[in-house]
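Below is one record:
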Amino acid sequence: MLMRFKPTGISATDYGTGIVLNVGVPHIYAKDIDALVASFKTGNEYEIKPYKQKRSLSANALAWVYCDKLAEKLHSTKEEIYRIAVANVGVFTEIKVADAEAAKRFRQIWQHNGVGWLTKTINETTIQAYYGSSTYNTQEMARLIDFLQDECKRQGIEIRTKEEVESMLREWGESNGK
């Protein structure tokens, strides 16, 4: 069961061996509270992590429209434009590997994830591994769209206004309870 909630209070136990977490449970989960409480008694493991709002499909579609327009203007492909954008403003993790052969194998596997899953070699054993935008949250996707919009402006390509883009992101957030 996946449940999203906001903590209303948290405290450490007397000896620092545990925590007490108080949460406000949205009404839509009210019928599940008894089952949730019962599951805690069975010794199950739980993962608690901050919620990150995912980007909307309309924002993703907009990014690809910009990539396509830039590709046409620059005589390139939309995939290449997208890769350039991800390499410039995308999210990456620095990976250290044992040797050059491990680096080569990692790059092959990583890039197999999709068009925007890029790698940049820092040195023989250090790689920057860029995530594709399918993993981006709203803030990260907004940064990608801003980059593409700036490139479109430089090329004289008509773009949506900032208000239109913000409206798209807001509309998505409202439809997902944000």
Notes: Residues 57-175 form one domain. The chain has a mean pLDDT of 84.
